[in-house]
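Please discuss these two lines.
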Amino acid sequence: MTPGHALRIRTIDDVKFNRQLEYRMLDGRENDRWRIGVELGYSVAVKKLGLTDVCIASQDFADPGLWTRSGKVLLEARMIDLRKVPPDKRRSTVGDGMGRMTQKLGDALDSNPATEKGCAFLSCILDEEKRIMILVGELFRDVTGTYHQSGSSSSTE
């Protein structure tokens, strides 16, 4: 993580989809899972974080997949499939994924002084029953140069 920022991470467990199509897409192509990850990030940004000016990319694998019109909040969204990851490697796989996302957001915050924070949404397919968990990382500017990691919450999307 980048010095000069504070990080808060929380989890959203037991994510449910409204349509069976999303569940089928989890077994589809990588860009199908990318799209679902971006859409889940969008839902969390709007419903849980209260952001009102979130835009979603119309193309697959667009970078960024999400952004705010104001540019005050930077967003990253990804989905990883843990079904084929050995159980003893899952924690490090998730940690590495969130680490890469928050590092990218930290670098972007450093180069964009008008931004207030960055948000990383890492959606994880946990098992063959297609249970989904979302890790939400909020990266804030912190004048002390320290990181703070706190909180874990559970809710249904």
Residues 113 and 122 are 25 Å apart (CA to CA).
